[in-house]
Structure formats: structure tokens, C-alpha cells
Amino acid sequence: MKVLVTVKEVAEAADDFEIDGLDIASEYLEYDLNEWDEYAVEAAVQLQEAGHADEVVSVTIGPERTEETVRMALAKGVDRAVRVWDDDIAAAGLLDVDAKARLLEAVVAEEEPELVLTGVQANDDGFGATGVSLAERIGFEWAAVVNDLELEGDVAKVHRELEGGVEEHTEVDLPAVLTIQTGINEPRYASLRGIRQAQSKEIAPKTLADLGLDASAVESSFSMTAMYEPETESDATIFEGDAETTAAELATVLREKGVGAE
Amino acid sequence: MTVLAVADHRRGELRDVSYELVTAGRELAEALDAELHVAVVSGDVEAFAEHLSLDGVDTVHTVAHGEEFNHDVYVQALEALDAEVDPTVLLMPNSVNGLDYAPAVASSLGLPLVSDAVALAWDDGLTVTREMYASKVETTVDVDADRVAVTIRGGEWGPTEDHGSPAVEAFDLTVDESRVRSRVTGFEEVGGGDVDIADADVLVSVGRGIEEEENIELVEELADAMGATLSASRPIVDNGWLPKNRQVGQSGKVVTPDVYLAIGISGAVQHVAGMKGAETIIAINTDPNAPIFDIADYGIVGDLFDVVPALVEQFR
Ligand SMILES: Cc1cc2nc3c(=O)[nH]c(=O)nc-3n(C[C@H](O)[C@H](O)[C@H](O)COP(=O)(O)OP(=O)(O)OC[C@H]3O[C@@H](n4cnc5c(N)ncnc54)[C@H](O)[C@@H]3O)c2cc1C
User: Fold this and answer.
1) Which of B122, B238, B256, B286 has the most crowded Cβ, counting Cβ within 10 A?
2) Does this complex have an ipTM over 0.85?
């Protein structure tokens, strides 16, 4: 069985940042592998180690820079990767859920995996919808927010983590897309050997044309019109000064609230 | 025109977001000069319909099929309801179950999906406010489509509580069982154990800012000195540094202590969902832009490795 894992490089904003037009100015952004995807990668590699998967392939949508992030997945045991990008995608700006699902659908058509793993959400745009949207497009069954996974024949037995400390046990027929929640496993660190091997693993670049698509595939029906720092209604009292001073001030407040009283 | 909102329920109870969906839907319906319809799928739909007979709702559609949520049934129910109601805006919850069916419904109906909305406005078209970059910025998104699917974040709209007298219509759904390829086999409560953080009056809560497992000791020391109970954000529990019963948040426990001290916690929406009811919220964080400061009453912008030991001294 082949497992496809979607991975995304996400941008994190520095503590202090400035907005430039419709995005955070690039000098304040740092890039990393999306937290939820790390767990999806680990789940896939574990399926391979357990003999369920013959091959684990990662796919990402992103410019050349994102290969650095994809190498992290390769260093952890993913066999090879596909990276989808071209000028039309770059020009499209923020890709909506539908556009992403369309691109991934084309990759699924080429790779023919039996299981697709994605993260529950990406920490930058936070749509939390690409995996399930993809499943519907490709006619796979699915489960969202999975924090436990066992394969038994053609069935995935999963736990879905609901709100309030409740888990749902669900059986899902394969082929399927599962969106993976943090905590399902313990993502490994890449070994030095893994990092070295990752250098020679394939990251195949694909354009829209390579996937049999054209610019209409990334047309989106929404446009971002503004980005701003949210106005806080906060009237928080912020204590200023060194640790001793601020701690003393905070302790006074806490004592007034009865904390520490025997 | 119609706005159709889909209620959320679990194990026989409507979830809070259902009442919030009615508020969001009612606002939109007024702006659009449209009707507000509410759909409730599976479970004791008649009892649910009674609760959903709220002010501003024109029609409640009940779809009786099965006891519990099954996304394959939800997708089919909403496809069929969409064909009947033809909503301009389809509103769904950004709950865990919403995450499991809303994208499939939108995709199947060919509707653009804007997820996790925190505000909605209508002026010739829909404008959705959402957050990005881990809640550090807000964005507005204009949707250029005749019809659109939106999921709303829980807790952003007040609940509608006033009763109304909508029409209640039983919707007859014929489910294509060959398209039902998932089965819910049960539920499990996780995270019980020795301590119930929901009972604590004072919580000292630790987040990823603590960096290493052995540093948790530092915060434990503070909790001891303050006579407080130790809790945590999700990554601490994911890492196995503290047990699941200590997790505060959407998928952990909802807590309402008198004092909640958040140390090295950014204040992600799923964390805040569990602690925003605390009477006094205090944050210690190096990042002055961390969203936790938006809801805090008191704060120290500083390094926890300096502040926490100093605070321990204060309570020794
Ligand atoms: C479906 C779903 C359910 C979820 N349920 C929950 C839940 O129940 N509970 C929960 O907590 N999360 C939950 N999450 C995860 C949530 O989205 C966040 O990832 C998580 O809350 C982040 O935890 P954190 O604030 O500890 O870490 P981060 O967001 O990484 O924040 C760490 C903070 O520490 C600060 N910091 C770093 N170093 C220092 C220092 N030396 N001194 C002081 N401050 C420092 C940083 O500035 C930062 O603000 C859920 C997510 C999903 C998708």
C-alpha cells in the first residue's frame, strides 16, 4: 500500500512584526514544517515500519524554498516527495481550500495512494479543511481529527478526538484520507544518517501543466481585502520592570485574591 | 433568499455552538433580507427542534436518521436539504464534527468554503473575518460567489435564547447506504484520574514556553508555593510531560477557577476555549503580541525562567 502525506511549510510571525499590505512583512516571518503535519509524517513512517505501507510519498504545494521543509520529512523516513508550484500558483496568492484540494487531487491521480494523511490544520492560514475536501473530491472515505489509528485489512480503526475529553471510535473503509491530530504519536527527530540520506531523495517539481491542469485550477472565489492586528479590548495591567519587581507586584495582586493564604 | 444553519449535537444534547449559529444566522438573514432556516440531523430531532425553536428562526428542518453523528449521513442530508432550501449561505460549526463534514459538503455542492469565521458582514456579498498566523492577525475575505459555505468559530457570537415559533418540518431522507463507508462504534471519556482541574480555585498552567520536560519542576514548585493546582496547554500533554487530565482547552477540560496563571502559553483559540471563564487571568509571556494578553487581566512581558523563580521567592 502506498501512503501519501501532505506537508506544508508554514510561516510563523516573530514576536514583533509589521504588516506590509496583505501579509506580514517577510522579514518577520520564519518558516517551519506545520506542527500537525509532523505527526502525520510520523504516522505514515510508522505504518511503513509496521509493514502496512510499501512506500510513503510526501506532497507539498510551495515554492522552491519549501524543499528545505520537505527534506525534514524525507530525513524522517519518507521515501520521496512531490512539490507542486509554478508562476500561476505563485500569482494566485492565498490558495483557498478548493484550489488546494484540486491540486492535491491531481497528485493523487498520479500517485494512486490507498491512504492519504494530512494534518488537522495548518498553523498559518488555519483553514482546517483541505484533507476532508480532498477526500470528497477523490471519492475516498475520511476521518477528521484522528488521534489513534490502527489498520485492519481494508478498514482503518480510528479515534476522533472530540471536544471536552471525549473520543469517538470510528471504522473507516479504505481508501481513505485521515486528518491527523497532534499527540497521536511522538514525532522522531531526524537522525544524522536520515538527514544525509534525505539529500539524495527525490523531490519532483510539478507544474500545473505537468498535472494536466491550467491556471483556472487555482482561481479562487475569495480575495483577502485586509490584514491587521486585532484590536484588543484588553485592559490588562502589565507590570513593567525586572523579574523581581514584576514578580513582587504580581504577588501582591495574587495575595489580594486570596492566593497563598493558609 | 435563505440562510441555512446546521445545528451541532452530541450524545443527546445540542452543543452551545448551535445557539450561536442561530445568532450568526439571524444577523446574516437580516442583512440579506432572507429567511433563517435551521437543520438538525440525527438523534432525537424532535426534542432538538423544540430547543431550536428560537427567535428569528423561520423553519427548522428535522432529519431523523440514526442516533449519532455520521458524516456520510450528514453529507447526504445536507445535499438533499440544499436542493430543497437553496440557501445563499450555508452556516456550519467549526467544531470537531464540523471539521469532519463541512468541507465535504461544500466540495460536494461546489460551494466555496470559508472556515473558522469570527465575524460576518453582508454588503452585496459576504465578507468574512478570520484569523491567521496563530491568531496574531485578523484578515477580511470577500467572497465572490452566489452561494457560499461558512463555518463559524464557537464562542464568537452570543447564544440566542429567546423562544420563537418557527415551522418544524420533518425532512424525509433516503440514505444511499453504499455511500456510508464509516461507522461510529463508540465513545470514550479520556483524561480522568487523580485530579480534577475543573475543581481547582487557583490554576498554574504551563505551556510550550517551558521548553524541556525537566523545567516543569520549576512551575510545579510555583504551584506548590501558591497552593495552586498544576494544569497545562496541549503540547505539554502531547509530549507526555503531564497526563491528559491536566489539559485545559477545547479537547481537554473547561475550567473556571478564580485565578488562572498562564505561563509560556500563547493563547491559541482552542486553549482559550477552556479557560476564558476564569475570573482573573494572568499571563507571563515573552511575546507582547501573544493572544493570551488580549484576554488577560494582568500580565508580565518577560522570560518565565526569570519571573517564575522570583515569584516562587514571593510565596516562600
Ligand atoms: C482540534 C484541536 C483541538 C485542540 N485542543 C487544544 C486544547 O484542548 N488545549 C490546548 O492548549 N490546545 C489545543 N489545541 C492546540 C492549540 O491550537 C495550540 O497548538 C496550543 O494551545 C499551543 O500551546 P502553547 O500555547 O503552550 O504553545 P505555543 O503556541 O507554542 O506558545 C508558547 C508560548 O510561550 C511563549 N514563550 C516561549 N518562551 C518563553 C519564555 N522563556 N518565557 C515566557 N514565555 C515564553 C511564546 O512567546 C509563546 O507565546 C487544539 C488544536 C486543535 C486543532
Assistant:
1) B238
2) yes
